[in-house]
Amino acid sequence: MITTALITLMYFLIWLFISPLRAFSDVVLDSNISQSISTASTYLGGLNEVVPVGTMLAVFGVFLAVEIAILFWKGINWLIRKIPTIN
Predict the structure, then answer these.
(1) What's the number of domains the chain is made of?
(2) Residue closest to 29 by CA, chosen among 38, 40, 8, 43
(3) What are 21-24's contacts with CB under 8 Å, separation 24+?
């Protein structure tokens, strides 16, 4: 669930970043780039036998969520310490 949200967020950020390029009708992805993506996905498919990518992404998602929660908590505490009457 977290992984899906992160992937969706990255997709929309990339989509937003390349939206000015998509306004032109003559922009086409180079065939070498398409071929390299296909080759990389083939290699990563073989890697999935050794290291389960889904599990690794889930662990990374949990780790990222915990780190963001800690950063949020420290930010709130910093903000509270900056208020003169509460300090």
Answers:
(1) 1
(2) 38
(3) none
